[in-house]
């Protein structure tokens, strides 16, 4: 009887040990599958983006964050450092030329909102970089924590790699083709807490006549749902329109419309300063190979 009980216990222990070994094996296999990425993944990514690096290992490095393997492998750190500055130049130059009425603060907010790490992370997903990324989250229980930041930096690293490997002109073409064609939202960066005060200050600054609100149309004044259409004029020129359920609301919306029209004014044809001279000779580092 005792021997049968002992055998039963031994069998249970052996079964538990086998399950544990199986789980460990599965965990190792899963971890291995995320760490070892086929070289064809990187060549396919180059083909998708129409890039041909001189070193076939360069795209793999672009997609390797310093968190991977505790930094023992070559990472995209230095490429990202270069790429961030190249992006800031080309994007900043483009926005300043395209939207000449935006203030410096608005330009900075627009660049951050449309070309910051969160936006660049979406670009990376669109490029198909996510399956090629090699990185490890600082929170082991939540492997996706930090993914947005890592992906955004990978796009900066990609721009840096193109700049270092193929030159300034190639980097600028890539930025123009893949990033500067994206729609930007000017209204999101124009602060509208006090549109009437802002419009009054703007017209004074520009030497324009004081804004005057005029009722253009109305309907249902004595009903529960009236609508008033207001126009804002500077002299004889109407600079904004708005509507609302009250005269005050319509006036405020008209002032906001006037501000948006002013700040969102786009220049269609403009020449960027970085295009003057020999682009291939332009560099921003003492040693471009950094």
Please characterize this protein's 3D structure.
This protein has 290 residues and is mostly helical. The chain has helices at 2-35, 39-49, 58-62, 77-98, 104-115, 117-127, 147-166, 168-178, 195-205, 247-263; strands at 212-219, 227-234, 237-244. It has a three-stranded antiparallel β-sheet with strand order 1-2-3.
How is this structure best summarized?
The protein has 290 residues and is mainly α. Helices cover 53% and strands 8% of the residues. It has a three-stranded antiparallel β-sheet with strand order 1-2-3.
Record keyword descriptors for this entry.
8% strand; three-stranded antiparallel β-sheet; mainly alpha; 3 strands; 290 residues; disordered N terminus; elongated
* N- and C-termini, Cα separation: 76 Å
How many distinct helices?
10
Shape: elongated
DSSP E strands, number: 3
Strand-residue proportion: 5-15%
- What is the residue-averaged pLDDT? 84
Low-confidence stretches: 1-5, 18-34
Structure class: mainly alpha
Order of helices and strands: HHHHHHHHHEEEH
Helix content: 40-55%
Q: Mind telling me the C-alpha Rg? A: 29 Å
The order of strands across the largest sheet is: 1-2-3
Major sheet description:
3 strands, antiparallel
Chain-wise SSE layout:
Layout: H1 2-35, H2 39-49, H3 58-62, H4 77-98, H5 104-115, H6 117-127, H7 147-166, H8 168-178, H9 195-205, E1 212-219, E2 227-234, E3 237-244, H10 247-263
Helix pairs in contact: 4-5, 4-7, 4-8, 5-6, 6-7, 7-8, 9-10
